Give the backbone structure.
Amino acid sequence: MKVMVLGSDGYIGHTLTKVLLEDGHMVTGVDNYSRRGRVSIVGSNSLTPIESIMERHITLRQKYLSNYNSLNYTLGKSYIHVKEAIRSFQPECIVHLAEQPSAPWSMINNRNAAETQQENVIGTLDILWAMREVCPDAHLLKLGTMGEYGTPNCVIPEGDIPGRCIGAPTDHTQVSDCPMSGLPFPKSPGSFYHLSKVHDTHNITFACKNWGLSSTDIMQGVVYGVKVNPDENDNLTRFDYDEYFGTAINRFCAQAIIGHPLTVYGKGKQTRGFLPLKDSIQCLLLAMTNPPDKGEYRVFNQFEDIYSINTLANIVCHEASQLGLNVSIEHIPNPRKEMEEHYYLPDHNKLRKLGYHSSNIHNCIRDLLIDILPYKDRVNKEVILPVTTWE
Amino acid sequence: MKVMVLGSDGYIGHTLTKVLLEDGHMVTGVDNYSRRGRVSIVGSNSLTPIESIMERHITLRQKYLSNYNSLNYTLGKSYIHVKEAIRSFQPECIVHLAEQPSAPWSMINNRNAAETQQENVIGTLDILWAMREVCPDAHLLKLGTMGEYGTPNCVIPEGDIPGRCIGAPTDHTQVSDCPMSGLPFPKSPGSFYHLSKVHDTHNITFACKNWGLSSTDIMQGVVYGVKVNPDENDNLTRFDYDEYFGTAINRFCAQAIIGHPLTVYGKGKQTRGFLPLKDSIQCLLLAMTNPPDKGEYRVFNQFEDIYSINTLANIVCHEASQLGLNVSIEHIPNPRKEMEEHYYLPDHNKLRKLGYHSSNIHNCIRDLLIDILPYKDRVNKEVILPVTTWE
């Protein structure tokens, strides 16, 4: 299969690129390497040592020859070039991982909020137009986030509002016919980053309906972990643990290996979907090999299971202590504005029906701790605690 | 009251500016005059002769002295300047009419789509950040569009999903408790322009919830007419009739005065909300003088009534024939992708409760025809028929 990976130098993008090439697919990667720059600007660095841009390119070219190519473009600012790249490569699937991925980063100031929405929304808009003009039969596999939904008091469907709505058991026991059936499920995102993904979702839905494009919009949970295969230790993907680009479990694990208390934001009863990196890759491959129909816009809620932050902190504590690490948990003021106790029940059946076998979170967290332990001296403690607040 | 009018050189903005000044309010107008340029680029011009930018400024300054000021800024591209303007003026209300307003224009090509979303979304985002930083107690009166909703098969509320949903009588007779109650009503917009307004709506909702800003999001129907007061004949606002910037009734009236058949897109059973310019101004003043609570995000569905395009064409025909004009109706292929027969029942009670007295559409259309008849030789027939299609 010919796959274009947008954001091929990123946390998931680089991992996916390698897996696709190893499986014999042709990959064109596109990246502007902004993640490296932004992590550096906030004073952090990948905990795992990663190759330079040039080294990565040479390594992959030497191993996979002409099956691999990489291009340096900034989506949303180079339409003609991106369109030409798509036209000449004619990908069967475009995996779009090239968005500014940090909620706290988008909340720092006006400039960051505007850059996030500009890059993400216009970047995706450009991909849609380019597909329409030069590659209308490709499958756009777009990474959204479970955070688009917020925490509504009803079951979150995978896609449109269903014919029958199911309310939270505490205050809506009945199942009712829904006159809004078939409309897009309402979104309640909680940051300018999450909002940018909601804007994307609306634009993609329209492009599929209006132009007959095909897309899978992945509402992905929070990803953790640093590799896909057990024998990958010599070439781990990047691993961020700072307040901006480090996500919850990754940050907890970085804290655990240096003996820093795990910092839970607020009550810690916030519940979200989570999945290990290897499950994310497994799911993306399943979506790729089971594409949507022509003109179809479909939604996958992609996560292994839902967990409260307190549960995750306890799992990290437990697995760390098994490895002889002494770890405590500390609740700190929540920098975000979010409900700290809430109903949460998102559907996630579609990927299972396609064959998704989920990993065991305990094993994955133990493996992650083992994977990053050799790099504990690289942790910069200054960047772990939150500085940016929502208000 | 101190009011900042963003888009003060536009169709509604210029009218509102004059009405506010006449009522004794202080107005700072902001515009980049892009409407003039864009109408010119598509080969058209305001049917009504309007003053040059400089003449308008001088006229208003001479009449209203220091109560009026005008600034030339492009929203979304001059954050520091816009913020400083808001900080120094300290408006009680910011009326935001400064968006690219044309659905067909946004569908011409990638560049127009991207410009529309960039200008509208980032422009509004900048206003929100500036309000938060330097004027958090102001009321943001933002012009959205009824087109954000699309044409759902249920009653469209004014605001969030209500506790009880009412379905279209044809297939959902029952009223049911709704587990999604309190979530934002789902949007199904039909162009990149309409999508930009939906993105704004999500951003504004978040800013109110997160920062405690106050906003009225006006879901406005399609506006027609060219003046507010009967004695305004010497200084009409701009009037566009081209396929891009001319809206349905205005375009029909321009066709009527030159004996061109009224061109109805498709079946003409598409139903939308409409209102005359003077009602739009009346409603904006009502919203201004009855501001939302601190931290409140509220939605007004702003239109006089709903009409099918066929009904409107018939009214224009009838009123034109009363004036001795001979007018026919012609159905042409629909350039847009939209349902041509559909259920449509939007609530619009909030403005009436504040005292909105709606005008009579027959009188308004007759007045409009009389107002523009003197300028019939200025119509450029080349720009009336649709060239841009949705597919």
User: Anything to note?
Assistant: The longest strand of chain A covers residues 139-145. The longest helix of chain A spans residues 110-134.
